[in-house]
Amino acid sequence: MPSSGHRLRDVEHHPLLTESDNYDSSSSSSSEADVADRVWFIRDGCGMICAVVTWLLVVYADFVVTFVMLLPSKDFWYSVVNGVVFNCLAVLALSSHLRTMLTDPGAVPKGNATKEYMESLQLKPGEVIYKCPKCCCIKPERAHHCSICRRCIRKMDHHCPWVNNCVGEKNQRFFVLFTMYIALASVHALVLCGLQFVACVRGQWNECSDFSPPVTVILLIFLCLEGLLFFTFTAVMFGTQIHSICNDETEIERLKSEKPTWERRLRWEGMKSVFGGPPSLLWMNPCVGFRFRRLPTRPRKGGPEFSV
User: 33: part of which helix (H) or strand (E)?
Assistant: First the structure.
């Protein structure tokens, strides 16, 4: 890679590893195909708690919508249509969350900054590459080191504790879908809450829900607060992600005001590169490309990530 001034600010110049170095490079000994065959998971306490809280909040919303508002309704088709729509949005949101959390965001192999690897690159005279001093890897262009994942991530946008993972080159699509489906589900829940309040005020509180009036009010108010917070957060994140994709600029690159040294893929070209292929309904499906991963035969060392 050609040298560029903006790369010098976040990369220290260290000598490349040699055979006599004590760095344990066993984590990088497997091939890329072997690495791709394992599920990625970050062992971060805060991230795991945030991920569990996210799931519990979605399950709570589904409980209130289904058992407090829809099942007691006397309008059969109103309950069926809204129940199917909301539950589909919830399933798609949680599926997108899982894919974001369990997909390798584009981690660079650890400890590949060896003399042998350098020789295999067949670099041209004067060509400059950089080594990350934290995970001892050859740092590709647009990669940044994540202190939580303890890896360099290609096209790293940010580390999101709510999905317990970095958002990078390989899982940005699933993160965009997650924020979109959560925002849509939040809007749907808010509309249903509004209709439920109107129905209960016009009629009898004892008849509009199977729960007592005080419990119904508390459940609906909490769902409204959750819906407002979730919608605000995910709508903003969805907008910033789409803006970053259309401008081919990650959030880190924008905050650091890094001048692009790569050929930008703007607007639809950027969307195609992230979601894959021409626009289609497959863009909206978080399960596209999913395949079962194998279980690890032995524990891996050298980082907070592991295979499941």
Answer: helix 32-36
Q: Is 270 helix (H, G, I), strand (E, B) or coil?
A: helix
User: Whats the size of the chain, residue-wise?
Assistant: 308
The predicted model scores a pTM of 0.81
User: pLDDT tens digits, residue range 216-236?
Assistant: 899 999 999 999 999 999 999
Choosing from 160, 166, 193, 208, the catalytic residue is 160
8-state DSSP, 73:
-
DSSP 28: G
Distance CA 270, CA 157 (A): 14
Work out the number of other CB atoms within 10 angstroms of the CB of residue 156.
26
| Structure-block tokens of residue 96 | 């997108």
Q: For 105, list phi and psi in degrees, rounded to 5.
A: -75, -5
> According to DSSP H, which parts of 112-171 are helical?
115-121
- Helices 213-247 and 268-275, axial angle in degrees (round to 10): 110
State how far the alpha carbon of 252 is from the alpha carbons of 137, 168, 199, 255, 281, in Å. Answer: 20, 11, 47, 5, 30
Percentages helix, strand, coil for the chain, rounded to the nearest 5?
A: 50, 10, 40
Q: Is 132 designated active site? A: no
Encoded tokens for 202: 């016009």
User: Which residue matches tokens 């060509």?
Assistant: 127
Chain segment 78-91, per-residue pLDDT in tens:
999 999 999 999 99
Amino acid in position 95: S
Q: Position 250: which residue type? A: T
- DSSP structure class, residue 7: G
DSSP letter assigned to residue 190: H
